[in-house]
Design goal:
Layout lengths: L1 E7 L3 H9 L2 E2 L2 E2 L16 E2 L8 H11 L9 E9 L7 H19 L4 E7 L6 E6 L2 E4 L4 E4 L1 H4 L2 H19 L17 H58 L11 E5 L5 E5 L2 H33 L1 H4 L1 H38 L1 H23 L1
Antiparallel strand pairs: 1-5, 2-3, 4-6, 5-7, 6-7, 8-9, 10-11
Length: 377
């Protein structure tokens, strides 16, 4: 619906000739791979005031009246390209639409900063090129300055279509189709959407990896705690058995409290007598030891099951897999950062060379067209 761009001094002349449909060597200037029907160019018109000078001359004049850095990378002109919605099909409403677009943008960016507002009817779909010098108030120094970044912020881009839709709905008394799937999230270029998509994929992988690490660590932590508890219980049972064996003094070596007596009239045989409490202690201890031994076997079985479990065995494999995922994420982030830098360098280079930029855009359009035809076969 609407597309926003910022331009440096290097592309001003080329853009101005495209807006005004001026020719070079008898050929009409084309921009952004536009297919111009020159026989319809007489239908084009400019809604902005006639400045009586070229685009470059007006921009030099306006930037000379306010504070403007002389660096080559300074964006001295911004443009909104607003395309006529397909819901508008009458000449009267079309003219009204572009006039309201101009009024809406003029109110935002001020008439004294407007370069031009050409409506092109000689291309596939009627549209307006609204060009302006991005002049803002310097809050600290209380002077006017050129700053595209402050003049049109990210928030402005995100809210542009929604505000424009509400304005047009008041004018036309109906929704004319400004908001759609491509404009609901704000004005963004295709390369920005692709970069955002890549970043979202990386973030999604990071989130899944983080959850996997947290869940695995929690399970291993629980497993380790259970194993430690079983070990402590096992050691406590062993210590208890040793203590019982130590406290029970009935053995082949007779203790002091064990007495030997001969009994029998004809065949006297030796008998051992011990205090009742000592006998009970030995009897109880033997039974308890047997019970504890069974418990030890149960504990040992649990420990073996834990050690043989898939989670216990694959703990190291999971840890290795997590490390590999983290490494892949790191490489992906590095590649993304590198690609963003390359894209930025290419964009800057193309801004400095409008003719090359036009050739690249034409090649991209041709490539996409061929690819789409290949998919449809």
């Amino acid at each position: 619906m609407a597309n926003f761009q910022k331009h440096g001094r290097g592309s001003i002349g080329h853009l101005g000739r495209h807006f005004e449909r001026k020719t070079v060597d008898g050929k009409h200037i084309k921009y952004n791979n536009a297919e111009i029907k020159t026989e319809l160019s007489y239908l084009n018109y400019n809604l902005a005031p006639n400045r009586g000078m070229s685009t470059s001359e007006f921009i030099e004049k306006r930037t000379g009246e306010v504070k403007c850095l002389k660096r080559k990378d300074v964006k001295v002109m911004c443009t909104w390209v607003v395309t006529l919605p397909k819901t508008i099909n009458s000449e009267k409403e079309e003219r009204q639409f572009f006039q309201e677009i101009y009024n809406f943008l003029e109110k935002t960016y001020k008439q004294e900063n407007i370069v031009s507002a050409f409506v092109h009817k000689d291309e596939k779909q009627p549209h307006m090129h609204f060009a302006f010098v991005p002049v803002v108030q310097d809050r600290k120094k209380k002077i006017l300055k050129v700053s595209a970044k402050e003049c049109v912020t990210r928030v402005d881009l995100q809210q542009f279509h929604e505000k424009l839709s509400k304005h047009m709905e008041k004018i036309f008394g109906r929704d004319i189709g400004i908001l759609n799937q491509a404009t609901k999230e704000g004005n963004r270029a295709i390369d920005e959407l692709k970069r955002k998509s890549a970043i979202e994929r990386v973030a999604e992988v990071n989130e899944k990896t983080k959850n996997l690490i947290e869940n695995t660590q929690q399970e291993l932590k629980t497993l380790k705690a259970e194993l430690e508890n079983l070990k402590l219980e096992y050691e406590a049972k062993n210590a208890y058995i040793k203590q019982i064996n130590k406290s029970c003094e009935v053995s082949k070596m007779l203790p002091e409290y064990a007495k030997v007596k001969d009994k029998g009239i004809l065949d006297r045989q030796p008998y051992i007598t011990i205090p009742l409490e000592k006998w009970e202690q030995k009897f109880v201890s033997a039974n308890e030891i047997k019970s504890i031994e069974k418990m030890k076997q149960v504990i040992e079985s649990k420990i073996n099951k834990i050690r043989e479990s898939n989670l216990y065995k694959t703990g190291k494999e999971l840890k290795k897999e997590i490390e590999n995922l983290n490494e892949k994420n790191r490489v992906l982030f590095n590649e993304l950062s590198s690609n963003k830098k390359v894209l930025s360098d290419i964009e800057k280079a193309l801004e400095r060379n409008p003719d090359l930029k036009e050739q690249v855009q034409k090649a991209l359009k041709s490539y996409k067209s061929n690819r789409n035809r290949g998919r449809s076969r």
